[in-house]
């Protein structure tokens, strides 16, 4: 504007000058990216948090803040992460209330996922309702595929029943398994996994001789283990949470009940499992899977976990590499968009590919692309959780039959 000595033009120039300066100053006033998360600091899912996504999210936030934050072009600077966390107490009602509190009262910029399949299933519609991006950590449900078109803001990160169970059936077929006994916790996770495996086994000509549900928190599995043994099945499969996974392993050892294949889910991929059972884990299989041999990014991630948490780092060889890669993807999406706009970042999740610790990473129809999965089934072999499914990505062949349980140490 060509300002003259005339008062009204001077006034107009002054107002224009103030407006030009005001907007950048307003934009630069933001100092942090506020992210909210409702997690089970207590209750039955607390062990999952500590063993799976919890350490990964802590590591990522620490890394981001150590380098000054994430660069956001709109604000012309890096913004560190401000993490606001509440204890969902492993309770659905509590989680839902606190998630809405983060959005409506705390007005966080983003939310992170809760822990476990059923909680993720409950959180996804809430995120969509308020148009908040939600990319899942632990958990995944086939039912989400039925409604995913109505949940454009939700992205499932983890692999689950629809890819893992056909892979397990294929592994069993290739290794001569003829019959299977299945137990499962009667919740969304257990029902979907057991039904999906039963269908996959049937397609492979493998007989399911037993399929029984158990309650969450069961204290004795001996009768079911004995029944499976009496049926002379080749493989025992349990869709259990960590408490029941530990129980099934412990009682199988105490009763000296052995099967050619022993698969449990959730638990064997977590660091606490070999920590409890040591060499007895040899030959046990679980869902997942990846290890330090999967990719350079996987090796680098393991090194970071060990550097932060020590030699006994709580590494989960099912999901942690997925979670870390999704956080890298999230950061790159923010940088690409240049703002904290939920819809624009959501659109990047839906359309873009980025290199992450997984390698090339992208989403298809709201789910992490199958070709981006590092593996589906893992087996403990000499202290390494080897990938034994998907020949192109396998790091070892399956040990068959599983070695018999070692005799427990004599009581003093």
What does this structure look like?
Helices cover 42% and strands 18% of the residues. The protein is of the alpha/beta class and 412 residues long. It has helices at 7-27, 46-51, 53-66, 92-104, 117-129, 142-147, 161-174, 188-203, 222-230, 242-254, 272-277, 296-309, 320-337, 342-351; strands spanning 33-39, 70-72, 77-79, 81-87, 110-111, 134-135, 154-155, 179-185, 207-214, 235-239, 261-265, 285-287, 354-356, 359-361, 363-364, 367-368, 377-381, 384-387. It is built from 14 helices and 18 strands. Helix 3 (53-66) packs parallel to helix 13 (320-337). The strands form seven sheets. Strands 9-8-10-11 form a four-stranded parallel sheet, sandwiched between helices. Strands 4-1-5 form a three-stranded parallel sheet, sandwiched between helices.
Describe the structure concisely for a colleague.
The protein is an alpha/beta fold. It contains 14 helices and 18 strands.
The coarse silhouette is globular
Average pLDDT, to the nearest integer?
91
Q: Taking strands numbered 1, 2, ... along the chain, how are they ordered across the largest sheet?
A: 9-8-10-11
**Terminal-residue CA separation:** 92 Å
Give me the secondary-structure category.
Answer: alpha/beta
Hey, roughly how much beta strand do the residues contain?
15-25%
The counted number of beta strands is 18
Q: Helical proportion?
A: 40-55%
**Low-confidence runs:** 1-5, 19-26
Radius of gyration over alpha carbons? 25 Å
User: Regarding quaternary structure, how should these chains be classified?
Assistant: single chain
Task: Tally the helices.
Answer: 14
Which sheet architecture does the biggest sheet show?
4 strands, parallel
């Amino acid at each position: 504007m060509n300002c003259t000595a005339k008062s009204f033009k001077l006034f107009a120039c002054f107002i224009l000058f103030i407006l030009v300066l005001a907007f950048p100053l307003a934009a630069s006033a933001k100092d942090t990216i506020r992210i909210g998360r409702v997690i089970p600091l207590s209750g039955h899912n607390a062990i999952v948090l500590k063993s799976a996504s919890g350490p990964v999210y802590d590591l990522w936030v620490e890394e981001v803040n150590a380098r000054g934050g994430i660069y956001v072009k709109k604000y012309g600077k890096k913004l560190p992460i401000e993490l606001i966390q509440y204890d969902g107490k492993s309770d659905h009602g509590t989680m839902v209330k606190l998630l809405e509190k983060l959005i409506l009262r705390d007005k966080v910029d983003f939310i992170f996922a809760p822990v476990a399949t059923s909680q993720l299933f409950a959180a996804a519609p809430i995120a969509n309702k308020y148009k908040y991006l939600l990319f899942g950590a632990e958990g995944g449900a086939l039912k989400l595929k039925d409604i995913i078109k109505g949940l454009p803001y939700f992205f499932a990160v983890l692999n689950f029943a629809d890819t893992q169970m056909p892979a397990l059936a294929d592994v069993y077929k290739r290794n001569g398994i003829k019959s299977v006994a299945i137990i499962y916790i009667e919740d969304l996770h257990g029902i979907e996994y057991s039904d999906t495996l039963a269908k996959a086994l049937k397609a492979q000509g493998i007989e399911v001789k037993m399929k029984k549900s158990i309650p969450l928190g069961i204290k004795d599995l001996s009768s079911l283990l004995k029944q499976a043994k009496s049926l002379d099945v080749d493989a025992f499969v349990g869709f259990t949470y960590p408490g029941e996974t530990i129980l099934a392993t412990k009682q199988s050892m105490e009763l000296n009940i052995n099967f050619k294949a022993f698969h449990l889910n959730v638990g064997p991929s977590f660091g606490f499992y070999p920590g409890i059972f040591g060499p007895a884990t040899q030959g046990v299989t679980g869902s997942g899977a990846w290890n330090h041999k999967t990719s350079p990014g996987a090796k680098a991630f393991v090194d970071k976990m060990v550097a932060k948490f020590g030699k006994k780092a709580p590494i989960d060889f099912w999901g942690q590499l997925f979670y870390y890669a999704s956080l890298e993807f999230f950061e790159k999406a923010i940088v690409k968009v240049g703002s904290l706009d939920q819809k624009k970042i959501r659109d990047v999740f839906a359309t873009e590919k980025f290199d992450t610790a997984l390698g090339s990473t992208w989403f298809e129809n709201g789910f992490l692309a199958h070709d981006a999965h590092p593996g589906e089934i893992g087996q403990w072999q000499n202290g390494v959780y080897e990938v034994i499914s998907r020949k192109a990505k396998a790091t070892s062949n399956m040990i068959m039959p599983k070695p018999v349980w070692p005799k427990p140490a004599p009581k003093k």
